[in-house]
Write a structure and sequence with these properties.
By secondary structure, the protein is an alpha/beta fold. Helices cover about 35% and strands about 10% of the residues. It has an 11-stranded mixed β-sheet, sandwiched between helices. Strand 7, helix 8 and strand 8 form a beta-alpha-beta unit. It starts with 7 loop residues before the first helix and ends in a 16-residue tail after the last helix. The chain binds glutamine. The site of glutamine has 13 residues, from loops.
Length: about 500
């Protein structure tokens, strides 16, 4: 039995019924990581000992007749932005290298409580800034569908690990698309919940008014299970929403009759790869075949999303990253030459993109410029949000492409930050408006590079987004296709 291609739902059921032990499932994944990850570079750290201990604890709970939890024995990978007790956490940055936290973030605690087995920490763009995973201080991740191409970013290790069967579920974070964009480029499902739905306590901060935690998996059902395990109010996070968590897994059945699917023409304009346009339109036609009614809608201020985001995100990051002053994290400073050493190490500690953002953000927040840039961007943000409010009075869910292009070649966009930022054009408005958004595989460009359909919902509308995606996935087979790596003689 190839446990690495089983869904989380199937693994949890098998572990619970003792058809397999959690230790056996963990072992299978650890072996696969050892044989495959040299090519992909998804994992920055594998916690073999911790994973086997957690798995053994799940098996012991099952043997005692206790409920082992929703994700019993499910192998999970964590983006290295999640703070993990006793396990180095770097945010893929040299400045945090060597930092071993003394606590677990809330999402991590909740996964453990649900019986998940945490395999290790996944590669990402430094401090989650990027769209290709090439900004990692420890080297890029390779796309399992084509090793010469990027997996998407910033949760590139999360998406590629799920696509290659190196974990069943991965946690990522999404500030401007970093769950959905790599999910689409790597051919997996990813959901960014409503802002505040999942606690960010113990997640290294990037842009605090935008950051949100969410799962990536090969099926919509697995995303629903993971979200159910991690969502919900947390007094440790002041932005966390105090609303009950629905049983998402019970909301996935049924056809789509009566569902109004809004289609914004602004998202199909110039810049979109025509092959992706065709696949996404076919996916929307499939939703209609399942009973949905398509409604043309307009989101006129979406064209300002990119400019708005690339002011707000750097401004907030320049404030969040000020804490890495070379004193509290990562550095071992000798008694002499403190000042110079401090300057040098701090400069060496951040990569080029992070420095660019800190400079941009500091500039935009300067007294005298604040009104012209940051405040203006916040006003445009309100207009973008208002467009969505209006649209959701006419439809229940919005369907768009997730990415304008399929996975691009490693190095293709690194010299041109603007070209890199354009990869986020369809994902960013969702974060600016605080909405839930999901990407589900909807076909292959040229028959080999995956792409995805993006579904956006109203605030706390995770259920409608998941239900729509689940109905689509039940009648399509895209998610069953495996990357060519899988056939390279690796069990
Ligand atoms: N690509 C966007 C950026 O570079 C979004 C990143 C993210 O969502 N973390 O900021």
């Amino acid at each position: 039995m190839s446990w690495h291609w089983q869904s989380a739902a199937a693994i949890a059921a098998a572990v619970r019924s003792r058809a397999v032990s959690a230790v056996e499932v963990a072992r299978a994944h650890l072996d696969r990581i050892a044989s495959l990850d040299g090519k992909l570079h998804c994992y920055l750290r594998v916690d073999e000992k911790g994973a086997l201990l957690q798995a053994a604890a799940v098996d012991a709970a099952v043997a005692r007749g206790e409920d082992p939890g929703l994700l019993a024995g499910v192998p999970v990978g964590l983006k290295d932005l999640f703070v993990t007790a006793g396990l180095e956490t770097t945010a893929a940055s040299k400045i945090l290298q060597g930092w071993i936290p003394v606590y677990d973030g809330t999402a991590v605690t909740r996964l453990k409580r649900a019986g998940a087995v945490l395999l290790g920490k996944l590669n990402m763009d430094e401090f989650a800034m990027g769209s290709s995973n090439e900004n990692s201080a420890f080297g890029p991740v390779h796309n399992p569908w084509d090793l010469e191409r990027v997996p998407g970013g910033s949760s590139g290790g999360s998406a590629a690990a799920v696509a290659a069967g190196l974990c069943a579920i991965a946690l990522g974070t999404d500030t401007g698309g970093s769950i959905r964009q790599p999910a689409t480029l790597s051919g997996v499902v990813g959901i960014k919940p409503t802002y505040g739905r999942v606690s960010r306590y113990g997640v290294v901060a990037f842009a605090s008014s935008l950051d949100q935690v969410g799962p990536l998996a090969r099926t919509v059902e697995d995303c629903a299970l993971a979200l159910e395990a991690i969502a919900g109010h947390d007094p440790q996070d002041a932005t966390s929403i105090d609303a009950p968590v629905p049983r998402y897994r019970d909301q996935l059945g049924g056809d789509l009759s009566g569902l109004r699917v809004g289609v914004p023409e602004e998202y199909f304009a110039e810049g979109l790869d025509p092959k992706i346009a065709t696949l996404v339109r076919a996916a929307i036609a499939e939703l209609a075949r399942l009973g949905a009614r398509t409604v043309p809608i307009s989101l006129p201020n979406s064209i300002h999303s990119l400019a708005t985001y690339y002011l707000i995100a750097p401004a907030e990051c320049s404030s969040n990253l000020a804490r890495y002053d070379g004193v509290r994290y990562g550095l071992r400073i000798p008694a002499e030459g403190l000042g110079e050493m401090y300057q040098q190490t701090r400069a060496a500690g951040f990569g080029a993109e992070v420095k660019r953002r800190i400079m941009l953000g500091t500039y935009a927040l300067r007294a005298g410029y604040y009104d012209a840039y940051y405040l203006r961007a916040q006003k445009v943000r309100a207009l973008i949000k208002r467009d969505f409010d209006r649209a959701f009075s006419e439809c229940d869910v919005i369907a768009t492409p997730t990415s304008p292009v399929p996975a691009f070649r490693l190095g293709e966009r690194t010299a041109d930050p603007m070209a890199m930022y354009l990869a986020d054009i369809y994902t960013i408005s969702c974060n600016l408006a605080g909405l839930p958004g999901l990407s589900v595989p909807c076909g292959f460009v040229d028959g080999r590079l995956p792409t995805g359909l993006q579904l956006l919902g109203p605030p706390l509308g995770e259920e409608v987004v998941l239900r729509t995606a689940a109905a689509y996935q039940r009648t399509t087979r895209w998610h069953e296709r495996r990357p060519p790596l899988a056939t390279e003689g690796v069990a």
